[in-house]
Amino acid sequence: GQNIDQPTEMTATEGAIVQINCTYQTSGFNGLFWYQQHAGEAPTFLSYNVLDGLEEKGRFSSFLSRSKGYSYLLLKELQMKDSASYLCAVGRGSTLGRLYFGRGTQLTVWP
Amino acid sequence: IAGITQAPTSQILAAGRRMTLRCTQDMRHNAMYWYRQDLGLGLRLIHYSNTAGTTGKGEVPDGYSVSRANTDDFPLTLASAVPSQTSVYFCASREGLGNEQFFGPGTRLTVL
Questions:
Q1: A98 → closest Cβ in B45, B102, B105
Q2: Is B48 within 8 Å of chain A by CB?
Q3: Per-residue confidence band for A94, with pLDDT thresholds at 50, 70 and 90
């Protein structure tokens, strides 16, 4: 595999902020993706980073450090509906779209 | 329809049987992908197609074949199913210059 590591589970309370980390080791890196997947449903795209820095999109932000092989997804003002699995994926090689996924982080938001 | 459809929704199959999972998209996306998702292992790419008429192997291609006769359809065939192919299969597509992959609803396959 591509050695993509992320925590298996996380919990947080409504209204809080949570940071989900992802580390990776790969050659031919061409982007870091985050997807959200609710139980029994298909993954849906959240964010894409190819350059270092923070990308903000509403309550969700994603950060990338290519030199450290590190990314995080930051979720603010947590809501119950944010309870889901969050998948970190690395794009690799000259073929765009070939993604290698981590095992996912199951986030549970408590009231 | 709008988006990606997959059929069947679920299937129980005897080992050794041949099975084709269907995937159709109406977004005119050039690239399409097949993944399997297993508990504890995450999503793994089986095969992909960058454009109609071309296909490529992903991480776990053995035991699977694909074809891409046109832009809309990308069927996945298991020539002789084995129990280790029990999984949830997701089809996805991507617009040529875009980064986002759009996933279908999935097919839950059980091989006994």
A1: B45
A2: yes
A3: low
